[in-house]
Amino acid sequence: MTDRSLFNLATVRGSRLLSLSLCVAMLSACAVGPDYQRPQTAEIAQYKEAEGWRQANPSDSLARGAWWELYGDQQLNVLIEKLNSSNQTVAQSEAQYRQAQALVRSARGAFYPSVDLSLGKTRSSQGTGSSSSSLSSSSSGIRDTYNAQLGVSWEADVWGKLRRGLEADEASAQASFADLAAMRLSQQSELVQNYLQLRVIDQQKRLLEATVAAYERSLRMTENQYRAGVSGRDAVAQAQTQLKSTQADLVDLIWQRAQFENAIAVLTGEAPANFSIAESQTIPNLPQVPLSLPSQLLERRPDIASAERSVIAANANIGVAKAAYYPDLTLSLSGGYSSSTSNNLISLPNRFWSVGPQLSLPLFDGGIRSAEVDRTEAAYDQTVAKYRQTVLDGFREVENYLVQLKVYADEAAVRQEALDAARDSLRLTENQYKAGLIAYIDVVVVQATALSNERSVLNILQNRLIASVQLIAALGGGWDGQLDVSDKR
């Protein structure tokens, strides 16, 4: 048979194999393993503390927006932007997401044929048949072979193993993206809470400084009265004790503020030694929670989205494991040139080729495939339970923060009334002491009560600010439910 006839025969066979592969591709429209269905979770008609809620359906494609701008503090906005670009914990999650994206591209590449090119030289020797002749002429059987070969191989996805693998990798990448969003939201929430507490400490510091100044005036007045014989030495001692205790409280605020400042530095990717936040005269605004919160806000929580996408990946992995029971079909085609010399290697007489399909089916594996199916099914059950628990945790957190904000608001009103009464009582008591009607110990008691109420009002404001941040984070980041059409893959 001539070279042209051989070439024509190879072309015909190659066409038949191509037709066979197309038929296989059409027949492989379905894949083994279960198709994904969202697991059932606990259902609620509405939250106890808010109306208009329903069961969560993960939807983290909803935009979160710049929720920190609700607090109306420009320096806080700058710090958040710095966190978004320089936080190292977020950078780790972003790198993990890029790894997951690379796995998806790798899984997609498995659908295409692989093409290999090899060039090489082989030196071989074969004995002549007798040991004596081999010893006398050891180099007579040495032979050089030059090869240039191009090979094409393609695995037909008959049973959907590759498609299930891609489905699992895509779901894992989406879960990784949700993990990235969850980590970014967590770091943003932590920074905002630290910043708000730092600003409340600034206000407490101003309060204590003003109180120390008032106590110093009281001490001087008491000392003057003592020298004039109007009051006793015990009044001076009481005034000094009250002044020093308040000064100690003021000193204690310094390290508390430093801790929050250092935490913010790390969150923004800075060394604490190179970072500082100047004191402010104001406390950021307390955002007002809308009376009617959209029900889809909880659905965009990134941890819920990540948990559900992990379920999708686990479900697809069951299909991958079950596909191992079926044979693998590989179509391969190779050809090239081989010669004992490098001269005229690329010529028709030196040409060779091969083409053909290959079926591979393990007949006995000691239960490995069955065990893998059982493992993937158990892993699926685990991810379903985790998903359901994540949804329940989301319900619990929002309930807690809603009732917390409600109780804190009621408490703030009562404490403000107590503060107003304490201020009025202090004014009357100081006037009575100046008129010599009461002892200084009575003034000390009222002053301590007034200061305690001043600090309590600031503490409840701090608690309300922190609870508002926690509610925003529990809702997935704010309560602005505009759609985000950006690509997440």
TrEMBL record:
SUPFAM superfamilies: Outer membrane efflux proteins (OEP). Residues 121-141 are annotated as: Disordered. Keywords: Cell outer membrane, Coiled coil, Lipoprotein, Membrane, Palmitate, Signal, Transmembrane, Transmembrane beta strand. It comes from Pseudomonas hamedanensis. Residues 76-103 form a coiled coil. This is Efflux transporter outer membrane subunit. Its main location: membrane. It is a lipid-anchor. Belongs to the outer membrane factor (OMF) (TC 1.B.17) family. Residues 1-31 form the signal peptide. GO terms for molecular function: efflux transmembrane transporter activity. It comes from the Bacteria. Residues 124-141 have a biased composition (Low complexity). It is found in: Cell outer membrane. One of its GO terms (cellular component) is cell outer membrane.
